[in-house]
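Hey Z.,

So I finally got round to the iron/sulfur cluster thing we talked about over coffee. Here's the setup:
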Amino acid sequence: MAINNTGKSLAGKSLSTMTIGCMRWSGPENVGDIIQECVNHGALYLDTSPMYCYNSETENSETWVGRGIKGIRDKVILSAKCSPGNGGMGIDEWDPLRGFSNQTADQVRSTIDQSLTRLGVDYFDCYQLWTVSNELVYESAFKKGGWLEGVMKAKDEGLFKHLGITGHPESPMIKRWADEGIFEIMTVPFHIMNTSRLEGIEYALAKGIIVNAMNPLNAGMLGNNTELEIPGLDKIGLSLENATELALKFVEAFGMTALCGVSTLEQAKSDIKYLSKPKWTREQALQVSDLFNNLFSGFENACTQCGYCKPCPVELDFPEMFKMKNFYKILKMDSAKQQLITMSKWYGDGYKLERCEKCGICETRCPNGLNVMEQIDETLEIIRG
Ligand code: SF4
Ligand code: SF4
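And the result:
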């Protein structure tokens, strides 16, 4: 079984449609076995960062991957990264352990050296401008004596071969990155539940940039345990085992690689299995997307996430939660309920729907005439149920 090929090569190696995200290891024990299994089937690209699985200087994703690739360094495509920003919207004090707020060329160089040491290698294949969340972080990378200068010096010294960039930009920013002309690979979020970035991604692909789809399973919502029935699939000659197959085949069909954050050997095996099956065409993927979205069309009171109801006086951000509620109600996806619980617990006050003051302003603004307050109650019931 061989994973499908992208038809592109990176660092002199052929690039398959599966790449490996190194942030979700369940522990150090199985990292080597997982990497070996992936490499055996053609998934060579490993995406690491100083922050992933950080327990200590000797126990973190970079050191685990370093041990995992001992003896096969020349077979993998190793990518590392650090950020001029703080992992969020701003820039704080230099945080080398996690790879954040590298503002000077010297700081960047020190973070690069740290990653080389942790991984036990003398070069990377790719190095990426990481967590580019906004204009401020992006621009700061280019300032004199800053991130880019440090990184390009390292490149000149042979410490890596290809420059990449990663973040959560929308299409216009993706196009700007592509037009910059210095990035050969880009890692951005893309999955069938949100295709808003497709225009920017296809623009980058057309320029010959490799696009790695981050989060193809939408934070595990399209995981192996999620069964999904999409009526009409057979009419376009397709069938699906589960939501993971849908998610991976969808991403692959557009010419992207799917960044698979594998935790277990079983997960790696199933991702390998799906990405070894015949590729869907772009046309088929678009048809699947229509069928997927059709599941919601007959559903009254479906929030379209248009945002016209904002701002809410207590800054609630319910449209995204309504989307999850609908996935749970219409597609019977337990993972959507889990996501609602996670959002309500960890995503801040904007997602704590019990803070709704029932002022009703949102309902007067909603062009779809949604009974927002009722839906808030319904969402809360699901979260508490
Ligand atoms: S009804 Fe609730 S959600 Fe709507 S605007 Fe008022 S406080 Fe915000
Ligand atoms: S205006 Fe209505 S449809 Fe649009 S995001 Fe708000 S609730 Fe959803």
